[in-house]
Structure formats: C-alpha cells, structure tokens
C-alpha cells in the first residue's frame, strides 16, 4: 500500500488538532496554529550536511551539525528541518540501513532519535480493513509513504524484529502506553537507546515529545529543487 500525499498532509494538522491532545492533563499543550510541511530551501539543499552515505542517499545526525547540536524538537518540526535541506526523517526499510542507524546511536551514546515512522490514525485512515488492527498493520514511513510491515513479526529481509519487546506497559511495542496516562496517542516512531533495559529498539512515542533526529536525502525534494533551480549543484 502507498499512502497518498493528501493523507500525509493530513498528518500535519492532526499532530496539533487532535482533541485528545487538547484534553491532556499531564503534558504540554501547543498553542501554535495548524502546522504544515515546509518547502525545501534551495541554498540549504545545495549545502546540506552530508555526514555519511548509504545506497545513493546522504544522511546527517542533528547532534553533529553545529547549528542543530543540542536542539530537540517534536516529530513535525524534525521533519520540517530535514525538508528544508531536501531531506526527510530517516526511514529504515532494510536491516542494513537499520543497523547503520543503530550503530550511530550506540557509538555516540544517543538516548533517542526521531524517524519518519507514523501511525495512520488520522483522517483518511478510517474504515480501512487493511490497516486493522492499527498497532500491527497501520504504520508507514512518512518520508516516502511506504507501508511498514506488520509490527508483530520481523520485516522481510530482517533477521530480527526491530520493535522492542517491552516498554512502559512491560509489553511488546507498539503499545500506545501514553494513551492510558493522558489520552495522547503514541503515533510516531522513535528509536530509543536502552530506555527500558531493552537495548536499541523501535518504540511508538507521542509526537509532541522533543528529540534529536537523523535526516536522509529525499529524492522527491531533490528532484523538485533541481527542476526549479537550473544549474544548481546538489
């Protein structure tokens, strides 16, 4: 399945307009108006950080970029910072790419990062039998709109299931644990570093939490900037 662009754009207003968030008692509430995906900045795209390279894509970790070091942002702000550089949050479609990001986290003792993973729990995702139950079949990579394989087994090509076997509720991820605490859905995919004595693993996390992030080249945005800026070197 491919999630359409229209659906992906719906994610953006959903992040701040969910009525459950407005009713939360134990978490900060954003007073910012509806937020949207940022457009790429041609100059930033041409000079984007290229810290490491894998299968045709450049990547960078925000903690290693001077102007971003020490900065933590929510999931949508992380996407938008990446997008200004013709990139998006990292998507781990293969075990090799996943292990590369795990090594980055381990070698630099990074506590957690955002990825582009998102739960399809917003307008446009309702009445979809192929997405039920949502915690198993409802996840996708927002950067490229590719569906994430079912969460209850190892993805194709993986020798293990990258979702953690535990969390706040002492059960396999994703567990939507924060919904039981303050009514906020855990709709974004983060990699946590041994937070639950579980090693480095995937976790569902509420999207308002602030974290560093890894950006990955977006073919879509690079092609757009190249086609609208003659002669630009990307």
Automatic annotation (TrEMBL):
PROSITE patterns: C_TYPE_LECTIN_1, C_TYPE_LECTIN_2
Occurrences of domain C-type lectin (ranges): 54-216
Secretion signal span: 1-17
Pfam families linked: Lectin_C
Keyword tags: Disulfide bond, Signal
Domain of life: Eukaryota
Listed name of the protein: C-type lectin domain-containing protein
């Amino acid at each position: 399945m491919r999630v359409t662009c229209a659906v992906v754009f719906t994610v953006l207003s959903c992040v701040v307009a969910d009525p459950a968030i407005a009713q939360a008692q134990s978490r900060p509430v954003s007073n910012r108006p509806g937020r949207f995906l940022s457009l790429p900045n041609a100059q930033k795209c041409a000079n984007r950080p290229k810290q490491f390279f894998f299968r045709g894509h450049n990547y960078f970790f925000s903690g290693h970029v001077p102007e971003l070091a020490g900065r933590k942002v929510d999931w949508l702000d992380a996407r938008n910072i990446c997008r200004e550089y013709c990139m998006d949050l990292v998507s781990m479609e293969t075990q090799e790419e996943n292990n590369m990001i795990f090594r980055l986290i381990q070698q630099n003792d990074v506590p957690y990062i955002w990825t582009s993973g998102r739960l399809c729990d917003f307008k446009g995702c309702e009445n979809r039998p192929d997405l039920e139950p949502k915690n198993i079949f409802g996840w996708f990579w927002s950067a490229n709109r590719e569906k994430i394989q079912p969460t209850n087994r190892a993805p194709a090509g993986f020798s293990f299931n990258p979702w953690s076997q535990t969390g706040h509720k002492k059960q396999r991820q994703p567990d939507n644990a924060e919904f039981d605490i303050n009514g906020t859905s855990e709709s974004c995919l983060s990699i946590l570093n041994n937070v639950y004595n579980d090693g480095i693993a995937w976790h569902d996390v509420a999207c308002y939490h602030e974290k560093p992030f890894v950006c990955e080249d977006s073919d879509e945005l690079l092609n757009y900037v190249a086609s609208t800026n003659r002669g630009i070197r990307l």
